[in-house]
Amino acid sequence: xxxxxxxxxxxxxxxxxxxxxxxxxxxxxxxxxxxxxxxxxxxxxxxxxxxxxxxxxxxxxxxxxxxxxxxxxxxxxxxxxxxxxxxxxxxxxxxxxxxxxxxxxxxxxxxxxxxxxxxxxxxxxxxxxxxxxxxxxxxxxxxxxxxxxxxxxxxxxxxxxxxxxxxxxxxxxxxxxxxxxxxxxxxxxxxxxxxxxxxxxxxxxxxxxxxxxxxxxxxxxxxxxxxxxxxxxxxxxxxxxxxxxxxxxxxxxxxxxxxxxxxxxxxxxxxxxxxxxxxxxxxxxxxxxxxxxxxxxxxxxxxxxxxxxxxxxxxxxxxxxxxxxxxxxxxxxxxxxxxxxxxxxxxxxxxxxxxxxxxxxxxxxxxxxxxxxxxxxxxxxxxxxxxxxxxxxxxxxxxxxxx
Length: 403
What we know:
- The structure is a single chain.
- This protein is 36% helix and 15% strand.
- It has two domains: 145 residues, Aspartate Aminotransferase, domain 1; 240 residues, Type I PLP-dependent aspartate aminotransferase-like (Major domain) (Aspartate Aminotransferase, domain 2, 3-Layer(aba) Sandwich).
- It is an alpha/beta fold.
- The chain is globular.
- The chain contains 14 helices and 15 strands.
- The N and C termini lie far apart (48 Å).
């Protein structure tokens, strides 16, 4: 007798590691030279964890064998509080800081501890798909507010306002944005906060790419812009410090936290049930946050990430029928393809055929809960030579598929 998965997984998707990645693995096993532009995994492309963090990990191994407090070790949480204070957040209490096995675990816990069946959360479209998945896993409903490609993928705050109902519990803000690379100006963030203020909503501020911006664009931490709105901020060492495999991220509560006492007790319960996060990696957090911020040498003019980002934008926009807003932050571009010019049914068809015929893996926009145009995400972490090879293959593939 066939054993089926649970019903609440029927509408949960994570295409970044989904069918297209499975097919790419099959092609690689058969000897194909697949260029993987599907996942933001810096260590797989030669980006190094800072030496000081590796030393901190090694030197504290003897302290890492026992379980720690379910919220995380004190030195790491103290470092997170100090880091928040350095950019203007003066009222963060260490007891309101939770460390998890990456932000992914904390996002799922946040939704599981909050939502009842039918509760709604506003999530951007496109989004990082874990947010939609986490809402659905908690029996909630993800309501996708539009981000507008003609405006550099900025969120449509008016459309967001029109979606709020008496079932809405919060607003997810991903800034810098994955998958588009948009960075939101302060006036946009203030407008979103005003919606939260008016409707008594929680702000979920995903800021995992906070230090990865280009061309002098500044990231504004949402929690610094209000004291009267419950804000949960997510960050970690996976992107800014290239330590994805360490699986160490954090979230913290600011604003009227006394009103969220019961909610936080729910999160503490979930944190306790998994005993604690990876203790070994937590010992790298104080060193990461207090040391030299090497990410800035990668994102400035002449830096590797900046050069790869510039090449990606230049090559994509040079292809007829492709338009790509220049990402101001993160590790991704989100170009759109003109289906009137090329023989593809939709973005998913394009991505699968591109993989099969040219052995380049990108992820279709529907994998990020976006279907208003045929978009796809490109990860620009590989060296420029590899990216150039991928774009050469893309040009050849599109030329062969013109209408």
